[in-house]
């Protein structure tokens, strides 16, 4: 692949390039990958902001397509040097059926792998997830763990199951021969809960707070820590891995890397308040306002209501049995594998990540007025 640092020669493909993370990866590549000649952005739903990117020196090719359609994926992959596969159905709220989640996240990933094999693309970076590891169905905490920490990764929910299967397909494909006889080099990145500009769940929390007069009500003990990572640092890790994968194929090929930065370990709700607080919202209660059994009952009622209403309307509240269990289980990572293997260091400090996210929420506030 070795593109010249001076002459832009490389073609990258980003699947899911119009999503929350995908957009940051696309913009980061255009800013920080000097070898880029063409950037292909493949997504089911193309965004209007892509048009503004077409005026720069890099050819930006918007491709409307579906990763579940092998021929569409193959056409997009053909001729690319690197594929960053971040397209996926990120659904823990019951918006999509288990079958659809599996089809997009697993079959879609299989299509990307096969397209690389058939067309001779050698380098594949997959956006996996912390959920490939946990929290597991038993609610075991994962406290400051790393890529080698033993943990019983047992899942039942369609989303983590699909991510785990897709990641396994990607890692098992490492070393297989692509068209032309060279080896496919793959690796998987496992972000913890990503936050930052464009994060839909943060937007949902903000809107929920507005509906309750600027108040959010604590449901989870402050002691339950969740690892979070700023979207800009996740995007940077993708760019760096894509750049280093060729030179360090023997070390990085077939590996997984947690995405991490200096974001503090806090409960999910307390962490969100780092951004929502400066925008006028208050988290009521130093302890959960309701007993856990009542939260479980309410979450179960939400799931029942979702099932009953499904023929009429899609009811997808934040609180359901799975999200409650996730929120209520400590999951934090402490690792430096990415730094050791390919020199990753967070591009954005915690202070910068926080300021950028607050600025974005304030823009939401302005548009909500
Ligand atoms: N958001 C997080 O906290 C988080 C954490 C860890 C990992 N991830 C992973 O990061 C990736 C991106 O997540 P996100 O939060 O940006 O989600 P997102 O929903 O904002 O982006 C996903 C993108 O994929 C596209 N897509 C969905 N189905 C498609 C299909 N069939 N064909 C083509 N494109 C399709 C969507 O249109 C969207 O633009 C996912 O693979 C997700 O599992 C997300
Ligand atoms: C209603 C309360 C109980 C409230 O605290 C629920 C919060 C809940 C919506 C979130 C708690 C943990 C989140 C998940 C976590 O950050 C990691 C994820 C992995 C990633 O691949 C996709 C997103 C997510 C599943 C993320 C989704 C929201 C939470 C469940």
From TrEMBL:
Q: Which PANTHER family match?
A: 3 BETA-HYDROXYSTEROID DEHYDROGENASE TYPE 7, NAD DEPENDENT EPIMERASE/DEHYDRATASE
The EC class name is oxidoreductase
The Swiss-Prot or TrEMBL record annotates one GO molecular function as: cholest-5-ene-3-beta,7-alpha-diol 3-beta-dehydrogenase activity
Primary location recorded for the protein, binned into one broad class: endoplasmic reticulum
Query: Where does it sit, as one GO cellular component term?
Result: lipid droplet
Q: Say if the entry is tagged with keyword Kinase.
A: no
Q: Which family does it belong to?
A: Belongs to the 3-beta-HSD family.
Gene Ontology terms describing biological process: B cell chemotaxis; steroid biosynthetic process
Keyword Cell cycle listed? The answer is no
What is the official name of this protein in its record?
3 beta-hydroxysteroid dehydrogenase type 7
Q: Give the keywords, sorted.
A: Endoplasmic reticulum, Lipid metabolism, Membrane, NAD, Oxidoreductase, Steroidogenesis, Transmembrane, Transmembrane helix
> What region holds the 3-beta hydroxysteroid dehydrogenase/isomerase domain?
13-283
Q: What is its EC number?
A: 1.1.1.181
Gene, per the UniProt record:
Hsd3b7
Q: What does this protein do?
A: The 3-beta-HSD enzymatic system plays a crucial role in the biosynthesis of all classes of hormonal steroids. HSD VII is active against four 7-alpha-hydroxylated sterols. Does not metabolize several different C(19/21) steroids as substrates. Involved in bile acid synthesis. Plays a key role in cell positioning and movement in lymphoid tissues by mediating degradation of 7-alpha,25-dihydroxycholesterol (7-alpha,25-OHC): 7-alpha,25-OHC acts as a ligand for the G protein-coupled receptor GPR183/EBI2, a chemotactic receptor for a number of lymphoid cells.
């Amino acid at each position: 692949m070795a593109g010249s640092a001076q002459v832009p020669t490389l073609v990258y493909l980003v699947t899911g390039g119009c999503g929350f993370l995908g957009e940051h990866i696309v913009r980061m590549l255009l800013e920080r990958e000097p070898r880029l000649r063409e950037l292909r952005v493949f997504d089911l739903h193309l965004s209007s902001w892509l048009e503004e990117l077409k005026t720069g020196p890099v050819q930006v090719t918007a491709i409307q397509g579906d990763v579940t359609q092998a021929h569409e994926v193959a056409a997009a992959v053909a001729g690319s040097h690197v594929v960053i596969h971040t397209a996926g159905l990120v659904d823990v709220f019951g918006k999509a059926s288990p079958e659809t989640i599996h089809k997009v996240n697993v079959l879609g990933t299989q299509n990307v792998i096969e397209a690389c094999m058939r067309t001779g693309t050698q380098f594949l970076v997959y956006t996996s997830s912390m959920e490939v590891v946990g929290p597991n169905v038993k609610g075991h905490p994962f406290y400051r763990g790393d890529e080698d920490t033993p943990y019983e990764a047992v899942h039942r929910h369609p989303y983590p199951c699909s991510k785990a299967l897709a990641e396994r397909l990607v890692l098992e494909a490492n070393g297989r021969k692509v068209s032309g006889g060279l080896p496919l080099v793959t690796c998987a990145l496992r972000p913890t809960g990503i936050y930052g500009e464009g994060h839909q769940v943060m937007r949902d929390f903000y809107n929920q707070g507005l509906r309750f007069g600027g108040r959010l009500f604590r449901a989870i003990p402050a002691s339950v820590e969740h690892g979070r990572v700023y979207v800009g640092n996740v995007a940077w890790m993708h760019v760096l891995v894509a750049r280093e994968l060729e030179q360090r194929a023997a070390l990085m090929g077939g590996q997984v890397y947690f995405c991490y930065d200096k974001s503090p370990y806090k409960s999910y709700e307390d962490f969100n308040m780092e951004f929502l607080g400066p925008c006028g919202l208050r988290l009521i209660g130093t302890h959960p306002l309701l007993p856990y059994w009542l939260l479980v009952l309410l979450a179960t009622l939400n799931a029942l209501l979702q099932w009953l209403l499904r023929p009429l309307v899609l009811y997808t509240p934040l609180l359901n049995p799975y999200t409650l269990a996730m929120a209520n289980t400590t999951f934090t990572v402490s690792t430096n594998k990415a730094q050791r293997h390919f020199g990753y260091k967070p591009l954005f400090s915690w202070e910068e990540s926080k300021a950028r996210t607050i600025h974005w929420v304030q823009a939401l506030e302005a548009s909500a007025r």
